[in-house]
Specification:
Layout lengths: L1 E3 L3 E4 L2 E4 L29 H10 E2 L35 E2 L8 H20 L7 H23 L6 H4 L11 E3 L2 E3 L1 H12 L30 H13 L5 E3 L4 E5 L1 H4 L7 H10 L6 H7 L2 E6 L22 H7 L3 E3 L5 E3 L4 H9 L8 H18 L5 E2 H4 L2 E3 L12
Parallel strand pairs: 9-10
Antiparallel strand pairs: 1-14, 2-3, 2-13, 4-5, 6-7, 8-9, 11-12
Helix pairs in contact: 2-3, 2-11, 3-5
Amino acid sequence: MIKHICSVTFFVCGLLVIIPVADATDSAVPEPFQRFNAASTYTIKYGDLDGLLRASVVNTGRSTREKAEPAVAKTGTRMKQTGVKRSTVTEGNRFMYEAFKGNEENLELLGAIRNSLEKIPAEVPLEYFSRDEQLAYWLNLYNITILNEIAQVYPERKLKKLLVGKKSILSKKLLTITGIPLSLNDIQFIILKQNYNNNPLIMYGLYQGIIGGPNIRRRAYTSENVYRNLENNAVEFINSNRGTSGKSTRVFRVSSLYARDKGYFADFDSDLKVHLLQYLEAPESEELQAATTLKPDINDWTVTDLYGSYARIGGSFANNNAAMLDSVKNVSIDGEGNAFSTNFSAASSMMISKAPATSRVSPELNAYLQDINMRREATAAQNATVTIEELGEVPVDPEPDSDDEGNN
């Protein structure tokens, strides 16, 4: 068991960890989310989220940059699907929103997982975790929140009004973390942007629910896989028609996602060009190098449901809808975040909602937190302070086994 000592002060009013803030701009980040423990190997369990994603996400693979065949009316009708962008319709991973339409049990499951993740920092302060562990937490919380919101409005097909404008769900205070109301934009543009040095890779981990956005993965993010999987998402998105497209010898088209997230690129054209060239493959990389202007006008606001986008373009996804929906009912979750084979049910979501957030962390950290609370209460009457040196050494979990999704 690895142990370490750090300087921490506890006051009657709460927990204060004295760690210097790296940058003055971090002052805009709410105080409970500024601190971290670089030496920590504590991890958060996401067995429930893993089970949901494995059962509900279809991996479509890398883009071939080929356009889908033109829509053809089905036999016996002159009707055919319209509004489909053939350059992007077959791209991007899919989530089985169909399995949640009108299904209160499955919707309850989504909400229960979201609520469980939302409660973690109130019971287990994020400062006990490393920056990488915190990054995985924020990405997972963001994505399960998006999934929950879109599932509520599905089968809405075009999500532009949901994602941009005055009524955007991204700007609503959908979450309350340690008593602090947060929007998804707060998570992205305040907490993640500042705590992670404005790293543009972050945007590829924030699922938007639309074909024109970054992929949703089939596994939850963890401290061990987070940067590798962000890079995988970046490579997939940048080398797809929904991410980039050579338009002419002078203009290179890119996704409007980059315009919406332009804060990552101080000098938009120059900085974005440098960023894209890190991952863009030939021949598009050569076209980008030759271009003098970047035009962020590629859009596809279509929801990433499973077969809605393919229903009338002859894709194999439309051939066996019942079998696809059955596959989402193979995994359930217990109160400790462990997945097991059965059907999604109200009972499983109830177990998640009633399980304490501390069930997601190791027994060693739980025991330490309980000891801290007991000692703090014992000193409260004297209005005294207690430091970790007085309380003893902080136990640290051994390194967890690697569990990377890779390019799955």
